[in-house]
Amino acid sequence: MTAPNHAITGALIGLALPNMWLGVPLAILSHFVLDAIPHYDVPGDTNEARIGSKQFLLVQILGGGAVCALLVFVLWHFAPVHWFSAAVCAFAAASPDLLSFPRFVSVKRGGHDLVEKNWFWKFHNDIQRQHPRYLSVELVWFGVAATILAAQL
User: Fold this and answer.
1) Domain ranges of the chain
2) Do the beta carbons of residue 5 and residue 145 sit within 8 Å?
3) DSSP state of 130
4) pLDDT digit string (tens) for 10-22?
5) φ/ψ of residue 111, rounded to 5
6) What kind and span of H or E run contains 123?
7) CB 127 within 8 A of CB 35
8) Which of 34, 41, 93, 100 has the greatest CB tally within 10 Å of its CB?
9) What is the reported pTM?
């Protein structure tokens, strides 16, 4: 899934389980569960073409980051009872994707995708079921999660 869906799912976990000793690990685990569901990603015939594209930078990194920041702002502004736990869990749920940043940098510097260099990157890549045609899955997930979150505010 994209970062906004990871983050909103993590926020819901944080609201439901304000004990961060439980919420944070579950939020991180939710990342991999969501990534196993078919979901959207920018087009590209290879990991290098996809990760190194301008569309990946704009949609996945900048756009996804902006929506996640907006989510934290909304949590802070409306301040539901456990908003801080929700914000921490939102970050935790999206954070495994941050560990792929070296892959992006390597491709942008003219190198190859480093996915085979690290067991975590390989695992994370192998569970993905992503394609541009799965945009509807992303939108439905976000719509349902946003509706549930709005009811908590």
Assistant:
1) 3-152
2) yes
3) B
4) 999 999 998 999 9
5) -90, -165
6) helix 119-126
7) yes
8) 93
9) 0.86
For the chain, the farthest-separated pair of C-alpha atoms sits apart, in whole angstroms, at 47
What angle, 0 to 180 degrees and rounded to 10, lies between the N-to-C axes of helices 83-94 and 64-78? 170
Phi first, then psi, for residue 39 (nearest 5°) are: -150, 170
Structure tokens, 129:
């079921």
Q: Tokens in use for 73? A: 């702002």
**What pLDDT, in 10s, does the model give residues 32-70?**
999 999 998 877 767 677 777 777 777 777 778 888 899
| Contact status, residue 22 vs residue 84, Cβ threshold 8 Å | no
Q: Which residues of 46-55 are buried (b: 16+ CB within 10 A; e: fewer)?
A: eebebbbbee
Cα 134 to chain center, whole Å?
15
Q: How far apart are CA 141 and CA 35, in angstroms?
A: 12
Query: What are the residues whose beta carbons fall under 8 Å from the beta carbon of 116, sequence distance 6 or more?
Result: 122
Helix (H, G, I), strand (E, B) or coil at 17: coil
Based on its alpha-carbon atoms, the radius of gyration of the chain, rounded to whole angstroms, reads 15
